[in-house]
Structure formats: C-alpha cells, structure tokens
Amino acid sequence: MEIEVKLQLPDSSAHQKLSDLLSPFHIKTHLQENIFFDGSSFQLSSNQAVLRIRFYDNDSLCIISLKAKAVIIDGVSQVEEDEEQIDPSIARACIAEPWRFGLIDTSRILKRIREELGCRDFVCLGGFRNVRAVYDWEGQKLELDETQFDFGTTYEIECESVDPGRVKKLMEGFLQENGVPYKYSDVSKFAIFRAGKLPT
Predict the structure, then answer these.
(1) What is the rounded average pLDDT of the residues 180-193?
(2) Cα 35 to Cα 27: distance, rounded to the nearest angstrom
C-alpha cells in the first residue's frame, strides 16, 4: 500500500515560489512520461485498477506498475501498488503494439494481471508528462510536480509516508508560514487525465 500526502497548488506562480523556497534541499529533477493501459474488455478499470508504464529521463529507466483501488481523502492518497523495472525498448514496443505484452513471460505484474484479472489483451489509453523535483526536507522526501496534460497543467507537492497525519501538518505549516496557497488534492493525476479536464 502506497500512502501519500498530496497538496494541490493553484498555479505556476505558487509552484515557482515553493520551488525557490525548497531549492536548498533539492536532490534531483526527473522528466517522466506516463503511459496507461486497460484490458480490451475493461478488465482492469472494472476492478479499479490500471497498468502504467513510466519512463524516466529520456528512457534511462522504465518502471511498470499495477495500481488499484485508489482513494484520496483530505489530501491523503492510498493505493495498492506493485511495480518492477522493464527494459525501455520493450516498453516502447508494447506502447506501439500492446499485444506484445503477451510475449513477456518474466514479469511478475503481467502474470498477476493474467491470473488475477483474466486480462491478456491490452489497449493503450495514452498518458501525460511530468516534471518532478525531489527534495530532502525535514527528513522527508518531497516531490514537487508540474504535470503536463494535453488540456493544461497542474501543480502538486507530494510526500510518501507511513505517518501521513504528522507529515501533512509539517507540510501545511511550511506552506502557510511562507504564504504559499494550496488545497487538498481530491483526485489522482490519472483521474484528471481520464476526465480530460483540469480540476476546478
């Protein structure tokens, strides 16, 4: 189970202000490309699941993930997640021709999808890009996202934690003290992508 605090920033100005405040704690910035898949008969979405391929930094790394039963309440996200590394060239081939997933017999995740969800045929749903800056702040790993959809851009600060209540108070205190506007995220990036419009 992945548990994250997710706070939405209203615009690029708030994102830039927070980026400047956190700059002393910056570790790295990733360029991410996220592509999603469902079964040809919607076997994944009917089980509140989605298959995601994520490329990092011009295909230097690729991770395949199965995410399921996502819930966001008061800015705290919980989702069942299983992930593993995959060769970027194989992932690109699967995006172009999703039937190629069936040729991969070494993936634990694809085996789970076949056995648990009965899915063997896939369709590509498309996806979005994300610029993720990572910071080591107050002993926490913060991730500041600029997510680029075809229909607009969203901004969010996230932190994975086993103690989300404490971390949320820390993050909120920091934003409030520095005059950075925010609100609790109430939908996932994938849900925004599927809705085809930015959250109000």
Answers:
(1) 95
(2) 25
